[in-house]
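Dissemination and training. As part of the outreach component of the grant, students in the summer workshop were shown how a complex can be specified as a set of sequence lines and then modelled as a single object. The example used during the hands-on session is reproduced here so that future cohorts can follow it. Participants entered these lines:
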Amino acid sequence: MNTKLLKTLLLLLSLSFSAIAQDKIPNIQLKDLSGNMIDANLLENDGKPMIISFWATWCKPCVLELNAINDQYVDWQEESGVKLIAVSVDDSRNSARVKPFITSQGWDYEVYLDENQELKRALNVNNIPHTFLVDGSGEIVWQHNGYMTGDEDHLYELIEKLNRGEEISE
Amino acid sequence: MKKLLFLAFTFVSVFSFAQEAEKDYGQIHGNFQTNAQYYLRDTIIDPNGTAFPDERLLAAGFLNLTYSKGDFMAGLRYENYQNNLIGLPEGFKGEGIPYRFIRYKHEGLDLTVGNYYEQFGSGLIFRTYEERGLGLDNAMDGLRLIYEIRPGIKAKALVGRQRIYFETSDGIVRGGDLEFNLNEFNGNSSRTNLIVGAGAVSRFEESTDPIYNLPENVAAASLRANFISGNFNIFGEYAYKSQDPNSSNRFIFKPGHAIYANGSYSKGNLGIIFGYKYYDNFLFRSERVANFTELLINYQPPLAELHTYALPALYSYNVQANGETGMQAEIAYKFDKGTLVGGK
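and obtained this result:
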């Protein structure tokens, strides 16, 4: 039997929404790039909004998203004080590549490893890229799955909304 | 199998509720996901219909629920396969709750009862994880205790049986791991760090073989070290497994060995990585007779580019079950904007 299977994807529809989001980041340990363990629930940004983005070195849409944000990151930080935390779900096969990868991409993010996907599971993330927006008090106010060009502009609108003290209801 | 076309539909939803009453009832949150595929037969490339599923429509659904309150956390996952999608293991059939746990975390103590996922070091002797898209789930069902003896010294102990589809294995898996982290021990977060660890795992499975005297207890142990200094990162792990005659190695009586090492340097726009691996007779399962990805206790990290898109990913590289050795080097450099080849 010929084992080749050619799959043609005709339609892939992905829909994602979040309801009353009042979650905090769970108490799960992450590893920084120097091997120090940190508690995810203690991540903070001095009362300013924080983006938590799940990615992996092999995930092209994730890299596109993080590159798109990186182009504007300096401006974003100056205007809104936002901080991006990039959580890599690369397993031991690729985790050693994370540091050379981010330096060669020129990213200025805070990067952590979630090697056996514990935080990913605790936050019910199915597929990456998956992006969370956390407000100044540590509440997850918005989340989004997938990336399409332009999504980062929408994300920044939400950050500005947060800084104006408005509710995010989507 | 012949070629066929399919329609796919994925539905993902995330929801969460929180009580804002005066009394703290905790938080419950979760999500559900359904993947359904409707198959269309291509009569030219599949004239006999051998690749065309009888069901016409296949669907798999997942519901995750997590409850947390203070130091307590509990969760479950309901899975539903009607039947599993083409290309994924057919053993996933029907519906049930194969994953549920209660976890208590307080200061240095972390206790889990029920199902859990865990990894020692790079996973050479022990790794349980879930990768839904590949039909992988070797969750443990039992007990796990993680205890931080003092900052920088962490011990793990676990016992349980692994998941195989909607059942658990006959074999019992027991393990322990000890890790020392220099920076945490010294209470700083310097850019130079040393992490050393050692782990051991053992499997018990009854043997009733009339001819061979098969070992009922099989042990594996590993030593690892990770040195990080500024831009350099060096990691190495060596693992040994006592003789483990099983269906994958055709019941040979021989110990197994494994080495996994990598080093990297990164500075400015430059990233360099070098990797080496050596695996000999190192497949480790919680039952002697098992197929494909069933009941794997350990994980042998491959050294190959992991692809994103469908075509190269369909022909992905797989570690040879009975042993292989390999090396890999990779250099990445980002040219600055405005330079000759850096673009605008």
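The two ends of chain B are 48 Å apart (CA to CA). Students were then asked to discuss how this feature might be tested experimentally.
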